[in-house]
Write a structure and sequence with these properties.
Elements (H helix, E strand, L loop, with lengths): L4 H18 L11 H22 L5 H30 L2 H15 L3 H8 L16 H23 L4 H18 L5 H6 L5 H12 L11 H18 L12 H13 L4 H6 L2 H8 L1 H19 L5 H23 L5 H4 L3 H25 L8 H7 L14 E2 L12 H4 L8 E6 L1 H13 L4 E7 L13 H13 L5 E7 L10 H8 L3 E7 L9 H10 L11 H12 L6 E4 L1 H5 L24 H13 L5 H9 L1
Parallel strand pairs: 1-3, 2-3, 2-4, 4-5, 5-6
Amino acid sequence: MRYYSHIDGLRAVAILPVVAFHADIELFSGGFTGVDVFFVISGYLITSIIATEIAENRFSLLEFYKRRALRILPAYGTMTLAVLGASYFLSLPEEAARLGQSVMASAFFVSNIYFWQVTDYFSPDSIYEPLIHTWTLSIEEQYYILIPLLLIVIARFAGGRFVVIFTGLSLGSFALSAAMPQALELANFYLLPTRAWEFGAGSLIALLGVDPARRRRFAELIALVGAGLLLWSFFGLDKNAPFPGPNAAFAVVGATLLIVFAANTFVGRLLTAGPVVAVGKISYSLYLWHWPIIVFYRSWFGPVLGPWDVAILLTASFVAATLSYYLVEQPFRTDPMRGAGAKRVTAAAAVVLVGVAGAGGFVTQQGPAWGGHSAEVRAMSAYIGYRTDREAHPCFLYAARVGTGYRVDLEDCLTLAEQQPNVLFLGDSHAEHLMGAFEEVFDGVNLVTFGATGCLPEPNPGRNFYCPKLYREAFADHLAPGSFDMIIVSMRWQERHLDQIDALIAAWQLYGTDVVVLGPSPEYLAGFPRLMTRAMIRGIDNIDHFLDEDVFALDRQMSQKTWSDGVRYISMIERLCPKGQCQQFTETGTPMLSDYGHYTDASALEITERLRQDILLDMGDITGRAQN
């Protein structure tokens, strides 16, 4: 296949935003879409090779997989084994088993499916997954497995209607991605059926027989449009934008236009500049190495990256990528390696993959023993991934239940009592972590609880997804005005909520005259158990420098707010962080927080006892009111 230098330049354009996004350079808020550019390039190059060889009647499936093995496995295997070795010194006990599992998944090209099951790519915890970036390698390999078989079938049994069939499949994949409900957003992000259209865009260029070197009318203008689409994708989108779906089209269409039109244009000359092409050549190794380097750096020094940290990480990533390219990638691209027998190379590749998977299995089996940590460290590390001892609350709609057909039984959950004060306790997950403790501690009242993950408890909701449905049904169909003696609201307050809170309180007071607002809980910039475990390893006994200062500022605003009659604000920050020093453990030695800001069962009980002592429910008043 003919070499086009502007495509190597396009690889550089794809990898640099990805690295910048992972290094928390805010300007590159949509840098993750560089991956989509890679998918287009991969679809184009692989389809060009296969279609040409099929047309010339010289395609060999075994030879194809041999070339893929020589291209991908040496650098991948080296990086993965290096990560496993580094994990002995840098990973926490509870992280080791998960790392081993991700190694096994990536070795068998299913890490996209594995991470779909265990973590959101954009979640705070993902920054401690050294191999989460291998989801892209897995999805590419899955495409590489399917596309030669599909092309062979089309050539033999569909009259060679490559363009028609690939167009249909790509449009179907795009439609599926665009129509995917939010409840399945992780599947949409990670899985091949909703990503295939991105590869398909590149494949269609190849199947149409487009020669990227040919000068076309309006090429300068169209190349600029393609570049503009990529720039918008990198700088205009962010991790909160629905993705992939239509938002991925900016990167996909932009990359497609640049492949076809950029050669011999102003944009093409930028792409073929020496330094740009040089970065493009090492882009695969740079992709492999930059993320584990960032993860392990954060593991030791903390989750927040300053300018000097970014400079160190970028330098280390480029050095590692350059060494990997010349010492690992290039030796497997020599003529002797290319001339090696396909059976021999693919057999060796299978052995390497099994060996890597076996190493991952060994680390998984070692689990907490991996790294030789002390019993104290292992005990604290065990709280990573903490799960409550209580059953999942039946009156709370968890995100994991959305899309499964599960429904909160509102009729049962919202039952009122005639002989006791009725108190409604609602909110998001920052209410749920207290619900069980409230039900245990506050006897003498009929405590009615319900809520949903990530939902602002609005009696008259107007936004999309499952929140409005739940709250509209609850307040309109199951509750009457004046039903409650008191309403308690606890949630993960954000500054944007301050503009809405007076209207919300007015709506709540239709159902209960007295309203108690529990302020924001202290939050850390990463999971508390993870931060504390690493602090213990380093001999540090306080991690308040990792507290999120924005939460403290928000609490101050809410504390200073003039609240309407019948509303009481309780600052959780004042109670848990007196004089700015946050309580880190309960009286029995249990961590206060299970992650960035949710309470453990023991701390929830301890906190609720204090709130009762603080006369949270003003028991005398509402009891007397109920009796009257």
